[in-house]
Specification:
Largest sheet: 6 strands, mixed
Strand order of the largest sheet: 1-2-4-3-5-6
Distance between the termini: 37 Å
Structural class: alpha/beta
CATH topology: Rossmann fold
Number of domains: 1
Number of helices: 4
Oligomer: single chain
Length: 154
C-alpha cells in the first residue's frame, strides 16, 4: 500500500503524519492493526518525511507512522516545544489521538532523546526503542540555539 498523509489534533496542534495503509475520512483514525505499530520520531529541524523509505519498507507487514513534531514540517507552529520532556508528552498525546496503546519507537538525534524520555515518562507506551545518532542530553549553548532559530526563521 502507498504512503498516506493526514492531520490530527494533538494538544491544540494540527499534527501532520505519514502512515502506510488505506485512506480514511478526516476524523477517522486509520487501521494500525497490521503487525507491530512502529513510530518514527525525527530530529530537530527535520520532519516525518525523513522516514518515507522506512515507512514503505515496513508497511507491507507492519503499521509504520511518522509525525511532524510541532514547529516542524507541515505541523502547526513556527517554534518547537521548550523541552525534550514536552516533546515526549506530546508524542504520548499523539499516540492517544491515534488510539495506539504502545509502539516500537525509533528516534534519530533529538527524536532519539524524545524516544528515551518517552520511555522514562510513559514506559507502558514503548515496546522497544531503536535509537540512531542520539544522546540522552544535548549540551547546546544559548547562542547556538539562537543561531539555529535564526536560520530556521529565515
Amino acid at each position: 500500500m502507498p504512503t498516506q498523509t493526514k492531520y490530527t489534533d494533538v494538544k491544540g496542534y494540527a499534527t501532520y503524519y505519514y502512515y502506510n495503509g488505506a485512506t480514511t475520512l478526516p476524523d477517522v483514525v486509520p487501521d494500525f492493526s497490521r503487525g507491530r505499530k512502529i513510530l518514527f520520531v525525527h530530529g530537530a529541524g527535520s520532519n516525518g518525511h525523513t522516514w518515507h523509505r522506512q515507512i514503505e519498507a515496513f508497511g507491507a507487514q507492519h503499521s509504520p507512522i511518522a509525525l511532524d513534531l510541532p514547529g516542524h514540517g507541515r505541523s502547526a507552529g513556527v517554534e518547537g516545544l521548550r523541552t525534550v520532556g514536552d516533546y515526549a508528552d506530546f508524542v504520548a498525546a499523539f499516540l492517544d489521538a491515534l488510539k495506539i496503546k504502545s509502539a516500537v519507537v525509533l528516534g534519530h538525534s533529538m527524536g532519539g532523546a524524545i524516544a528515551m524520555e518517552l520511555g522514562l515518562r510513559h514506559a507502558a507506551r514503548v515496546e522497544a526503542l531503536v535509537l540512531s545518532c542520539t544522546a540522552p542530553k544535548f549540551n547546546l549553548t544559548p547562542d547556538r540555539i539562537e543561531g539555529l532559530r535564526a536560520i530556521t526563521m529565515g
